[in-house]
Every structure is written in C-alpha cells, then in structure tokens.
Amino acid sequence: MKAMHPVARLADLREDRGTAVKIEDTEILLLRVGDEARAFQAKCPHAGAPLADGAVCQGRLVCPWHKASFAVEDGSLCEPPALDALQRYPVEVRDGEVLVGRDPLPAQATESRPDDRLFVIVGAGAAGTAAAAALREFGYGGRLLLIGREPGEPYDRTALSKFVLQGDKAPDEAPPLREPEFFRQQRIERLHAEVTRLDPQTRQLELANGQTLSYDGCVLATGGEPKPLDVPGAQLEGIHLLRTRADAAAILAELPAEGRAVIVGASFIGLEAASALRKQGLAVDVVSPASLPFVKQMGETLGQHFKTLHEANGVTFHAPSEVVGFTGDAHVRQVSLKDGSQLPADLVLVGTGITPATTFLTDLPLADDGSVPVDAELRAAEDLYAVGDLATFPFAGQPTRIEHWRLAQQHGRLAARNLLGHAERYADVPFFWTLHHGKRYEYLGHPRHWDDMHLDGSLGDQTFVALLLAEDRVVGVVACQRERATAILAQRMRQPLGRAEALDIVQAN
C-alpha cells in the first residue's frame, strides 16, 4: 500500500471552500464534505487558477477566474471553460486527521459505445471544440469530424484583445483549447476547410473544394464575422478587424513605435484593444455613437466608471460621434467624423460587433440579424443544432443571442448531450470577464432591464461588487477583484436570488 501523508485536521477544513496543502512539491486541494474529505488537483485544468481561491456552492467547486465548475463528489466537469475533470488523489480521515496519497488516482474512463454514425461539427472555435470533446466524454464512439476554416488547432480567441495586442503573447502563443495529441487520442478528425453549403433537408454539406459529405448529426458552431465599416476609404491599408490570430499578427506588424490609433466602437473588444494599445505606447482615440460605454449592459454609473478609467490612462473619447470616412495615400492617415472633425491615425481598429456566420445555410429560416433560431434544446432542425454566437435561443422567456465565449462552450456541451438523445436545456448563468488597464472585471447574467443597483465596495478603489436588481431580485452582477464572491454568485444565480441573500454572500466573501 502506498504511503498516506497527514496534511490537515478535518476540523480545520471549511465546507464552503477548498484548502491547498503540499506533499513535498505536489500541491493538492482538500474539500470537506461532512465528516469526509476529497482531494483534487489544486489548479484549474483550464488556465491554472488556484482553486483554493474559488468557492464551494450547491455541491460544486467553482473556479475563481473563469467560473468552470466541478462536482465536489468526484471532481467531474460540470461547466466549462475547463474541458477536463479534476485529477483525484486518495484521501481518508483517521481520528480527525486527513491523510492524502501523493500519487493521483487513475482517471475515470468513459465507456465508448460502437456507433456507425458520422457527426460533423462545423466551426472549430470555442463552441465546436467543446462539443467535440463532450461527445467523446459522453461516450459517443462513432466517427467525429471537426471542420474549421482557420489553419492550426483551435485556440482561445479572447487572448487576442487582452494579451496579444498589448505584447504579452505572440499571436501563435494564444492558448490552445486542446493540444494536437488530444484530437489524435480521441479520434477527432480535424479538417481545415470551408463549408460553402449546408442543406438540413438532405443532411449534406459541401466544401469549397467541391467535396460533399452526408452527416447523421451536426453542430453549427461557426460563430460570427466582424462587421467592417461601409464608408469611403474603408479599404485603405492600416484599417483592421480583430477576430483571428492572423488579424492580430497584421495589427502588430503595422504597430508604429509611436503614433495614434483610432478605435471605432466602444465595445468590450474595442476598449480592451484601447487598453492594450495604450500599453504599447500609442495615443488612442475611441469613437462611439454612445455617450458612455457599456450602458446597455451595466447602466450609466458603471459606464461612467469605465470611461473615467480609460481617460485616466490616456484614452480620448469622441462620443457621441460617428465615423463617416477615412483618408490617406494607400494607408489610412485621417479618420473623418460626422461633425466634420478629423482625427490623425496611424492605425485603425474597427470593433463594432459581429454578424452571425450563416451565409452557407440553405433551407433554414434565419432571424433578422442572420442568426439561427433554435428551440430550448438548441435544435435548429432534425439532428442539427446551432450554438454560440450564431444561435438565438430561449433565455429567460425571450429569444436571445449572447456573444460570450464561455456560453459558446456551454452550448457546445449541451448540443453534444442532445445529439446523443438527451433533452436538456440551458440552465446556467452567462459569464464573461474583461481586462482594462490591468484590472479584471467580471460580468454575470444577461439582464435586459433592472430598476436598482446595489454597490458593495468602491468604484474608485476598483474593488467592488455591483448587483443589478429587478424587483429586488439579482439579474446581473458586475465585479472587480471579488472573485470568490462571484464564484458563489455564478452558481447561486442558477435559481432566483434575492437582494438580502446576495448581500450576505457578497459581504461574507
């Protein structure tokens, strides 16, 4: 029998969070479950967050950084962005003392059932990769084809505006969603190609090279395409969109040692890019039709907070305003605004949103914005599911399209379950995080309206939780540097949550 090491007293462990311990150079997370203990890897398999800084709520361990969640009972994966279960360690309690083995337990194998079907996933981003991984996790043993237009393995696009543009990572260092070996081991065929036509009636899709494939089940996960500006001069060099590694590489290749950048649109990507380019030393102007950023998502008080934060870091806003044209000799030199003013520009980044990538679909009704309407189980047609940025799905009683990276992964996992015969619905809480001048902000929920906001903490100190409330129920949360509180709220908001209980959570964490 392998040695068991005493690491803690059970009485010293809390049930609402994990405790990190070390056996020589191995860090392990302990969880107390009544009179028992569980032992798991100490860092989240997604991005290495210390799970001891997260929280335990309703039988789940929630990561502090990106809100992946795992079952306390066995470490199995409940919600992404992690795509793996937690590694487990042997643990026992003797006379109140917790003993842990240093060698991890074997991973729990998934029984793969023989299957002669072909499942095709169109789109190899966050949603598509999550769907492919989940199909194998849930036991699908048939042929699985993951088709993507972009060369290379799937990667985390959110790193482009947050870390790549500010020079912390090269474009090819954007974290992979899965290593190449994973696809080989899981028998996931990767096809770098463009789907030019998909007919749900015949269950066939055509590729740009003329090849035709027939599928038994399909997940549409092509996401969206950035919206270019349709104004004079929009084709000049130096005007960029940001969606891919190639886009980021092109921006960095043209980045002047000093000069001015103009960001068109005060979107989350636009203002993350503004923050990144200020770090690179450029003067930055932001042009937006709205007086304040993020008002629709957060309200005027928080919108003013973000505007003030950017202005304090040297960003100049031109709002409300509108770009009507660009001028220059081959390369952009000036940006023309509707009021007649001109902004000098050595670089322009357009961040005015995306259009669902659905032009290849035939005989499938689309919403007015080009997205695919789906039912509560994400079904667009028989054996065809649509997920992520391109799907309009029922949420809080209304058709909704949400462009969140983590939600796209949640959709991918849900579609995988339903392709295999389940009938599950989205029941989680939308979440994303955004980075501005070194400060990390988190956003929970997807409120359409609210009638009150309760602020715990200080906007000035950038340590706060803001509760967005409708009839005294929490419908959204905006927070900065309060990750344990948001870890609990991310789980607790799966059910109706009143102001009083939410404040108890926030003030205790």
Structure overview:
With about 500 residues, the protein is of the alpha/beta class. The protein has four domains: about 5-100, Rieske [2Fe-2S] iron-sulphur domain (Rieske Iron-sulfur Protein, 3-layer Sandwich), CATH 2.102.10.10; about 120-225 and about 355-420, FAD/NAD(P)-binding domain; about 240-350, FAD/NAD(P)-binding domain (3-Layer(bba) Sandwich); about 445-509, no CATH class. Helices cover about 20% and strands about 35% of the residues. The protein has a six-stranded mixed sheet. A five-stranded parallel sheet has the order 19-26-20-21-22. Strands 33-34-37-36-35 form a five-stranded antiparallel sheet, sandwiched between helices. Strand 2 and strand 3 form a beta hairpin. Helix 1 (about 125-135) packs parallel to helix 8 (about 405-420), helix 2 (about 160-165) runs parallel beside helix 5 (about 270-280) and helix 9 (about 485-490) runs antiparallel to helix 10 (about 500-509). The radius of gyration is 24 Å and the shape is globular. The relative contact order is 0.11.
Examine the secondary-structure arrangement and name the CATH architecture of the largest domain. Answer: 3-Layer(bba) Sandwich
Q: Figure out the total of helices.
A: 10
CATH superfamily of the largest domain: FAD/NAD(P)-binding domain
Shape: globular
- Strand percentage: 25-35%
Q: Could you name the CATH topology of the largest domain? A: FAD/NAD(P)-binding domain
Kindly report how far apart the N and C termini lie. 41 Å
What percent of residues adopt helix (DSSP H or I)?
10-25%
Uncertain regions spanning at least 5 consecutive residues: none
Level-1 CATH class name of the largest domain: Alpha Beta
